Amino acid sequence: MAHPADSASTPPAPNVGEDGAIHSPPLPPQRGRPKVVIVMGATGAGKSRLAVDLAAHFAGVEVVSADSMQVYRGLDVLTNKVPLHEQKGVPHHLLSVIDPSVEFTCRDFRDHAVPIIQEILDRGGLPVIVGGTNFYIQALVSPFLFDDMAQDMQDCTLSDHPDGIGLTNDDEGGGYERLKEIDHVAAQRIHPNDHRKIKRYLELYATTGALPSNLFQGEAAKKWGRASNSKFDCCFLWVDADLQVLDNYVNQRVDCMMDAGLLDEVCDIYDPDGVYTQGLRQAIGVREFDEFFRLYLTRKESDNNKATSSATMLSVHDDQLKSMLDEAVSQLKTNTRRLVRRQRRRLHRLSKDFGWNLHRVDATKAFCCTTGNSWNKEVVEPCVDVVKSFLADGTTCSPSTNASDGIGEREVWTQYVCEACDKRVLRGAHEWEQHRQGRGHRKRVQRLKQKRSQMRPSESS
């Protein structure tokens, strides 16, 4: 089993602070902190399956879903909710509990999940948090939300009663302009169309008087995003696999979803005037079928038989509709594969930059091998060993020594513009470096160089 931090098995070296003083290595997790297991990984990696399998080895396992789309009622096939028969009697929480039309934020997840986890602990059970929405998990186990950080920002409060900042204005564009007036550094950090974050920044300033950009400086920033400051004692399991293997599995899973009634589900919530930026309609696989349903349902209006089903839609003979359906399925696969990459990048960053000790388990052989025992041998057994050690003394989950010191001091606010990629805006040095190393960026830069080299001879003549 591979670990992001190879040095986890040896005592960490003393840390030298900015003041030159030598600080003691991190203490073992406090015995008083409640223990939770957190299963992370990209979509399709097998997180839910592993969580259910852990219940066969540990008493009182209850699963708490940390998936931003599975929390909504509806789209069970598209969002890949664990069917009841596959739950094998293991209690599952936060599945299909939220109205599909409302917004469910990281803060909402935390406020729902914490009482559930506490109830499981009170029953003497073992909470197992499972999901691919890494921001949800980060909000749950670390000082991650602005509200958390603002509690440590008394020195940054500008006034005792901040008011008159125009929060009652419904003009979303005006909100961004107001943010620029209040805190131009924070405004530079976010996209003008990120209305949710703009609203949170303004609300934060209204309630605390703290500038959002100040949250990433000083003592509050040093705690931001780090699991070592959690109220829980966390054991992180990262189920991963070779990227090509995950890509192939995602493609196959989409095909299975199509056969299982995905189109029926999406058709049921289709609204030609619907908004794809809030609630369940944000799910990958909804927007992709918009053009298909727009034409398909329009043509069905003129038919005598207006009944729709996956079978009739999949067997459509109209060449234009068939082409649009094929394109939608292809786009669904592409966007899901992109999601896999974003999730994996985020996990790497949680390990490298935030010090999360993610116990990575490589499931590649389990995906490739057809024998029935491969999953248990390659995935379940290594994870059971990690959890047993964690429950015995907690030593497996000390902060990773690979983490960058002073994440809060890192440059995260500067805005970068990539001329080669149609003036794409990147925020912070980390995003910029990730973009520069990307295959797409490098290809565009190479084409731009070739174009310029071809223009030079003509210019000289």
Name some characteristics of this structure:
461 residues, alpha/beta, Rossmann fold, 6-stranded parallel β-sheet, 10 strands, 10% strand, tRNA dimethylallyltransferase activity, P-loop_NTPase, nucleotide-binding, transferase, cytokinin biosynthesis
How does this structure look, described?
The protein is of the alpha/beta class and 461 residues long. Among the domains are: 6-144 and 225-244 and 339-409, P-loop containing nucleotide triphosphate hydrolases (Rossmann fold); 415-460. It contains 18 helices and ten strands. The strands form three sheets. It has a six-stranded parallel sheet with strand order 5-4-6-3-7-8, with helices on both faces. It has a two-stranded antiparallel ribbon with strand order 1-2. The protein has a two-stranded antiparallel sheet with strand order 9-10. A hairpin with a 5-residue loop joins β9 (415-418) and β10. α3 (106-122) crosses α4 and α10 (243-259) packs across α14 (319-352). The chain is globular, with a radius of gyration of 24 Å. The protein starts with 14 loop residues before the first strand and ends with a helix. Residues 1-30, 151-169 and 397-410 have low confidence and may be disordered.
Q: How would a textbook summarize the main sheet?
A: 6 strands, parallel
Low-confidence stretches: 1-30, 151-169, 397-410
The value of Rg in angstroms is 24 Å
Outline, from the CA principal axes? globular
Determine the CATH superfamily of the domain at 6-144 and 225-244 and 339-409: P-loop containing nucleotide triphosphate hydrolases
CATH class of the domain at 6-144 and 225-244 and 339-409, please? Answer: Alpha Beta
Named CATH architecture of the domain at 6-144 and 225-244 and 339-409: 3-Layer(aba) Sandwich
CATH topology name of the domain at 6-144 and 225-244 and 339-409, in short, is Rossmann fold
Q: Which strands sit side by side, in order, in the main sheet?
A: 5-4-6-3-7-8
Number of helices: 18
Structural class: alpha/beta
Kindly state the number of beta strands. Answer: 10
Beta content comes to: 5-15%
Q: Give helix % range.
A: 40-55%
Distance between the termini: 62 Å
Topology order in helix (H) and strand (E) letters: EEEHEHEHEHHHHHHEHHHHHEHHEEHH
Q: What's the rounded overall pLDDT mean?
A: 80
InterPro entries: Dimethylallyltransferase (IPR039657), IPT (IPR018022), P-loop_NTPase (IPR027417), Znf_C2H2_sf (IPR036236)
GO biological process, one term: cytokinin biosynthetic process
Keywords: ATP-binding, Cytokinin biosynthesis, Nucleotide-binding, Transferase
GO molecular function, one term: tRNA dimethylallyltransferase activity
